[in-house]
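Hi F.,

I've been meaning to write this up properly since the lab meeting, where we talked about keeping a consistent format for the predictions we share between groups. The idea is simple: the sequence comes first, exactly as it goes in, then the structure tokens exactly as they come out, then a line or two of notes. No screenshots and no reformatting. I'm using this chain as the first example so we have something concrete to point to.
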Amino acid sequence: MRAELKAGLQELWERSLHERSRFAARSSVAVLNALLAVLTCGFFGVSDGIRTHDIQDHNLAL
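Output, unedited:
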């Protein structure tokens, strides 16, 4: 049951992030700006020369 809740919340989060990116591709909030860059640029970052294309592969720690 917890896994289903987490999956549902993740789906809602990703959908809302995509909707937000439709309004503007940038944000003055650094964390949100980094996440929006994933959607517009197609990769989160470069690690060992490998670009990753899936936002779920990364955990953002504040």
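Notes:
The two ends are 27 Å apart (CA to CA).
The chain has one domain: 2-57.

If this format works for you, I'll send the rest the same way.

G.
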